[in-house]
Design goal:
The protein contains 14 helices and twelve strands. With 344 residues, it is an alpha/beta fold. The radius of gyration is 20 Å and the shape is globular.
Amino acid sequence: MNKAQISDLKALLSSPKNIVIVPHRNPDGDAMGSTLGLYHYLKLNNHNAIVIAPNDYPNFLKWLPGDDTVLKFETQQNDCIPHIENADLIFTLDFNAFHRAGHQMEEVLEASKSTKIMIDHHQQPDDYAKYMYSDVTMSSTCEMVYNFIDMLGDTQKIEATIATCLYVGIMTDTGSFRFPATTTKTHHVIGSLIEKGADNSQIHNNIYDSNSYSRLQLLGRAMQNLKVIPELRTAYTTLSQAELDQYNFKKGDTEGFVNYGLSLEGIIFAAIFIENKQDNIIKISFRSKGEFSVNEFSRAHFHGGGHTNAAGGRSETDMETAINKFISILPQYKKDLSQAQNGH
């Protein structure tokens, strides 16, 4: 984002506006942390702002300050559509293509005549926003929101509520600060957020230390289903709809499961295949170490994308067909997988 655009945005935001802030469908910690962090900042500056999530999100995010103000498009369309139609500005955070908001919300966003502002760190953005802050080197959209507030010259306005929201997204999207996109600047931002009131220890507890017994049993089932293909340095696991139902699956329960396969010695590519009977798809999460790009792999074969080392995809077949396709594709990548460095 250049100086002229920042100047334009300062002028736009200098008087109260109707503003809608949107995360991607199935929002995670970075999506909800960034949207609520920006929401609190805009409210401090007297804007009529609201967060509209495409659908619901995990319970471990529902303690975030401002959660009670969030509308969910999937179940509250009659409330959401007028906000979108009457918005002066729409911020899209942590995604860069309208379809990532889900089919129904995609149509409403595309029809909106409001000015669009994108803040996102995923690869290959669509060209729908008048103002784009897109940077794939960033750890998280929450770090970018901090930078955005800084560009506007307002970091002194960041208080504990904003700091808490932004800390959540940086922590979760960096794997608790261990992924390669965690830079010295990221740590400076984190330090600043703690100074401004983010309680790092309590935030970690709220996100990671609230397991249910059924979730841990579901993790055990995923580990029982884990398969390793050592010659291709790949591990994958599956969870059927019947297994999800058996262990009382709730949204967010499988968060992080894919990383267990990646933690195996010698493995640089991991996947988890999760059946979703309601949407009639197999949802897939991919993770990798080093230079092996799961973004490119997912885009090429499973209608998805994301980052070099973390991406999502889907299959509209049954589980067995999806797994067989995955296994059949892997030999094409044998050279890349064998040469990849074993490290994040």
